[in-house]
Amino acid sequence: MKHYMCFDIGGTSVKFGVAGENGALLQKNEIPNVITQKGVDGLVDSLASVTEQYRQEYSLRGIAVSTAGVVDPEKGLILYAPKYFPGYPGTALGERLEIRCGLPCTVENDVNAAALGEYWLGAGQGAKSLFCITVGTGIGGCALLDGRVIHGAACFGGEAGLQHITPECTWEEMASTRALIRNVAAAKGIPETALDGRKIFALAQSGDEEAAAAIARQMDDLATGIANICYILNPERIIVGGGIAAQEAYLYPLLDIALREKLFPLVYGKLTLRFAALQNDAGMLGALYNFLMRQ
């Protein structure tokens, strides 16, 4: 079996694993993302070190990378990155890893990679067209058609969280987990630092009316943005990922009802709503799928 080194680079940690060409992860772990302390060179050093470690055990055929930031996947180039990735924009990450490790390398945006992973092995299997959103501190998105990412002219395609729902407010400002925390904290008159997503869902499931009302509002706001996507792209499947995917049993009915109210019956009738299935492995597996499709 052919083996590949897979990385999923997030803001605080880097998930990694060795996978077979069928997507089976044989090894997986994570290390801290050192970019804020050691810069891009330190990040590249850490990825190369992990790769060399596993080359002692596996005959690796390539390196597949998923990363935060806007990526030009043809060049493996970081075009834009959040402020907690100092020096990252302009980094030819794919080329640097190829030179360091002597292996072919592909790089893709993390949300795009997660969508590809779900398409290949998860909740997107069998869908000709889909849109995947990840809900966390913000909202990320990716459109796939026939298993290929619609990157757009500036590689900014799918960034649906930045759409304006009102003149003053973007979708992610209204419907992200950060917005949920803000709304519950305001309702209870407590600091936002006293809450997180897990605590809010635990409160709602124990009968807390303020938490339940805030979650219902979040799902309605989430459905508004999804409806906009459906009217523009008319995908056959919507996949909801990110931390809230773990709350599928609670959230699915709320989101489904809201979508049914906001969509024309013809559009709603052709739409399938799914929650992400691959959890923390989606980025690595999608990075691998991207690598295999580009060889």
Automatic annotation (TrEMBL):
The keyword Kinase applies. The keyword Kinase applies. Keywords: Kinase, Transferase. InterPro entries: ATPase_NBD, ROK. GO terms for molecular function: kinase activity. Pfam families: ROK. PANTHER family: BETA-GLUCOSIDE KINASE, ROK (REPRESSOR, ORF, KINASE) FAMILY. Belongs to the ROK (NagC/XylR) family. This is Sugar kinase of the NBD/HSP70 family, may contain an N-terminal HTH domain. It comes from Succiniclasticum ruminis DSM 9236. The lineage of its organism: Bacteria, Bacillati, Bacillota, Negativicutes, Acidaminococcales.
